[in-house]
Prior knowledge:
One of its GO terms (biological process) is glutathione catabolic process. One of its GO terms (cellular component) is cytoplasm. GO terms for molecular function: glutathione specific gamma-glutamylcyclotransferase activity. The chain is an alpha+beta fold. Helix content is 29%, strand content 26%. The chain has one domain (18-226): Gamma-glutamyl cyclotransferase-like (Hypothetical upf0131 protein ytfp). The protein starts with 11 loop residues before the first helix and ends in an 8-residue tail after the last helix.
Amino acid sequence: MAISLPTPSPLLSHAASTEADYDCWEKARVDPDVDPEEFDKVRTVFGYGSLIFRPGFPFKRSYPASVRGFLRRFWQRSCDHRGTPEAPGRVLALLRCSDVTDVDPSDRSDVVTGMAYEVEMEDWPAVLEALDIRERHGYTRTLAELHSSEGLPLGRQGVVYCAHQPQQSAAYTGPEPVEATAQVIRTAKGPSGPNEEYLFSLLDAMESNGLPADPYLTSLSAAVREKGSRPRGL
């Protein structure tokens, strides 16, 4: 399987400073607290957003998994995939619970379910390189302990691309009402397609992979559809 990358934004060559204003870098940052050699040992990627419905890289095995101590929210701007520098869209951010204190306690489950992808040793360097480019808009590559979708420890780590120290990033919107996020998702469009396509494709893929429903995503999708968005089933 060839490694596929989204088409680069046609605005990049003459709007780099605008993209940079939103912390859209050439590549994802790498967590300085993680020994670089540790990334080569795990050879497993945890996907919680677009990697669930479009991994875009070769893998030998995939299975439902989860990480603890994180929130999944559409609080990350996107001007290279699902929006433009002039009209950024929204994509999911994986946020450490310790970094987000102003969220209603009833709305902050600390378990995020997704898909784990195990990669062959010979493919691993190219996969990481491609993902670092794909996740360049405000994400940091780090490691997290993996659990089953039921919460049982798997005894291994996975690579995750998270919003590290989000309050210091121009890509981070900060907590916002579901209705405000829905308004952006309904109208935004970028090189990778309409923003709402991201949301609905994710929901379909989560269901087809047997992942439990995410109350936040369910509420958001209802808000997007409420104002006449396209029906589910792309």
